[in-house]
Each structure stands twice: as C-alpha cells, then as structure tokens.
Amino acid sequence: MEDGEFRFYRLVKCEKEVVQLSLQELFEFLWNLKYPETPWAKNAASVKVFEEKEEEHFQNSLHGLSPKENWSKIQKRNRLHSTFRDNEWGSYDWDISKFAYALVDSKLFFELEITDETGMPLSAHIVRIKYDRNEIAHFRKANCDTVYFEKILKSTEDYMKALVEVVKLNVSPYIEKLQAIKTEEKPVSAEVYNHMSLEFEKLKCSQLVYEEREKRYLVQEELSATIRELERIKTASENAFLKESHSTECERLKQTHSTEFKRLKQTHSTEFKRLKQTHSTEFKRLKQTHSTEFERLKQTLKQTHSTECERLKQTLKQTHSTEFERLKQTLKQTHSTECERLKQTLKQTHSIECERLKQTLQQTHSTECERMKQSHSTECERLKHALQSSSMEVGRLQSENALLKQRMHKLESGITLRKRKHSENPEEFQELKSEELDLYNKVKKSTEQTNFDSLRCKRNGMMKAVIVIIMVWHQVKRK
C-alpha cells in the first residue's frame, strides 16, 4: 500500500468510525433532551415519530410567509425528501448525509445554532463535515495527499471541540479514536485494504444515488414549470381571443399556441422519458457493476484471507516450536543455576543464623540468670526483714501478754482482799465475782488473740517465703 492510499484509508476509517458515530450520538442526545416523553429507540417506530414532529414543525414555519416563499420552501423540502427518504431511512440505517439532514435541515434542534468560541455555529460544522464526505466520495482513486488529509482531520477536530463547547457531549472516545487514526502506521494487511476499498465503493455508490435522485427531481420540476408556463400562455391566448375583434387572427393565434404547446409538451415528454430511461439504465449499470465488483472483491478477499491464514499458521507453528525449545533450554539452565545459588545462599545464611542465635541465646541466658539471681537475693533480703519484723511483733505481743498477766495477778490479789473484807456481804461478793469473771474472760480473750496473731504472722511469712522460692526455682528450671 502506497502512502497516499494509506492516508485515504485512514480518512474513510475516520468518516465511518468517528464522524458517523458521533453524529448518531449527537442526534439521539438532542432528541432525548427535547422529547423525553418519547425516547429514541433506534427503530422504524422512532423514525416515524421523527417524521411526524418534523411535519408539525414545518407546517408551523409556513405561517406568515408569502405564497412565493411557501412554494420555494415546500419545493426544497420535497427535493430533500426524494433524495434521502428510502428503505435505509425507514430502518434507521443512516449515513452521514441522512444524519446531517435530520439534524440541520429539519430545523428541530435550536441548540445547533449556538456558536462555539470561533463564532461558528454547530450546524455549520455539521454541513462542512457533510461536504467533506461528499468530496471524498467523488475521488476517482483511493488516494490523497498530506495537505488534504490534514485538512479533513483538522475539520473533524474542530467539530469535536464544538460538540464539547455547545452541547457538553462526552467525545473522549471519539477523540482517542481520531488520535489513533492520525498516528496509525503501516503496514496494513490485504484484508484491511480490500475492506477499505469496498467501503469506498459503497460510499461512491450511495453518493451517486443521492445525486441521481436530485437530478431527476430537478428535471421533473423543470418539466412542471414548463407545463405551467404553457398553461399560462394558453390562458392568455384564450383571453386575447375574447378581447380581439378579429376572430380569424385569434383563431390563428389559438391554433399556433395550441400547436406550440403540443409540440413543447411532446418534446418535454420525450426528453423526460429519454432522461428517465437513461438514468434507469445508468442506475442498473452502476448496480450491476457494483455487484460484480463486490463479488470480485469478496472472492479476492476470501482467497487472500485463506492464503494469509495458512502462511501465518505455518510461520506461527515454526516460531512457536523454536521459541518453545529455546525457552525450555534457557529455563533449564536458569533453574539449575538458580538452585545452586539458592542452595549456597541458604547454607551460608543457615550457618550465620545458627551462630547468631547461639550467641544471642547464651547472652540472654547469662543475663537472665544474673537478673534472677539478683531478684532472688533481693526477695530473700525482703523476706528476712519481714521475718524480723514478725519476730519483733511477736516479742511485743508476748510483752503485752506478760503485762496483762501481771495486771491479772494484781487484780486477783485485790479481789482476794476484797473477798475477805466483804465476806459478810453476799451481794457485794457476787458483784466482785462477776467482775472477776469478766476480767478473766477479757484477759483470756486478749491472750488468745495475741497468740493467734503471732501464729498468723509466722504462717504468712513462711508461706510467702515458700512461694517465692518455688517461683524462683521454676524460673531457673525453665531457663
């Protein structure tokens, strides 16, 4: 593929995958925005609703216009209808020209008249896109130069920017696709090239059909205008015949005009039939040529595709086997080398780690033993002090007990004297006896309590010492 062909291929790809899809999204977005009660369903029913809305808008636009302006507007609309409304129109299989007609010529969407930052309305961008498409369709060969290629891409970029500025449409996917087309590089396979050629032929054929329909409509309009002119001449001749006094001259004029009218009518009828037959023959020839070319391209594409597939299959098979063997050998060598390296590394790491752990364990053990030894000695000193304190407490309690015993002996002596002194009074003797009993009970209770406290202190001190010794022993044993 030559450079010019590759540029042309990218232009056709841009028209098909960027411009047409963005026009479709713009139309559906504006339709749903204006008519949310009847969202666009991409089928024949939606197309029918569009035609009804367009007809209603067109009839409203005729109000207040002069008869001449009405007639001119109706003729233009009929010409557009005869050009674009076909089977593909009814099934919503629209191309760029049909989308441009639905967006701009229908006058349904006022948003398209808003200008961008360059002062150009969005409808003008769409019309320029349509003209670019028609210009590409008239190329005699699938080839273009760099200047034309860059001009078309620049026009498409301006259109994308206007979409963002005016209707705030998300065109990021189309911009990315446009950049990919702009920076795309060769080579292009034969299959893709044949597909591009087929798309170009379809584009040319559709444009020829549009132009043929427009020419036929213009011929019909010209014939209708001629017939109306002849009718006017006939009416004028008849009026002149009534006004003129010379009946012979009027008859001659009438006969002359009638003969001229018949001749012109027959001439135009013959010309119209000839043009109709010529256009029909040309259309059939183009259709047959397109079918033949399509079949030829289809066969060529099929053969090229099968040959290319076989060649790629063989090449891929050879490359796969060679690459597999090479990877197998490389993997084997790498695996053995890596195993040896890991083995040596693990061995060295293991020995180093063992030494480090051994030293750490020794240091930890000696440190812990020292700490436990100090803790044990400290606890023993504390227990000694506690035992000494308990012994001192026991001595104090024994001293108090001895003092209480002495007091008790003194009281008993006093009571004995009082017994002797008051032996004659039994009631007083009984009271002394009760006091003696109470005093004895108090001394006994105090003595028992002192002995109990002393024993409890000794027991608690011994239990604490035993528990501490057991804990220290267990810790030393665990270490």
What does this structure look like?
The protein is an all-alpha fold and 479 residues long. It has a domain at 3-297. 86% of the residues lie in helices and 0% in strands. It contains eleven helices and no strands. The longest helix has 175 residues, at 247-421. The chain is elongated. It starts with a helix and ends with a helix.
Shape: elongated
Structural class: mainly alpha
Please provide the ordered H/E string of secondary-structure elements: HHHHHHHHHHH
Q: Whole-number average pLDDT?
A: 79
**How far is the N terminus from the C terminus?**
86 Å
Rounded Rg: 59 Å
Helicity level: over 70%
Biggest sheet, in brief? none
Unreliable stretches: none
The multimeric state of the shown protein is single chain
Portion of residues in beta strands equals: under 5%
Count of DSSP strands: 0
Number of helices: 11
Characteristic terms for this protein:
479 residues, mainly alpha, 11 helices, 0% strand
Q: Could you give a quick summary of the protein structure above?
A:
With 479 residues, this protein is an all-alpha fold. Helix content is 86%, strand content 0%. It contains eleven helices and no strands.
Strand-helix topology:
Blueprint: H1 3-34, H2 44-61, H3 67-84, H4 87-90, H5 96-105, H6 122-137, H7 146-167, H8 172-182, H9 190-243, H10 247-421, H11 426-478
Helix pairs in contact: 1-5, 1-6, 1-7, 1-8, 3-9, 5-6, 6-7, 9-10, 10-11
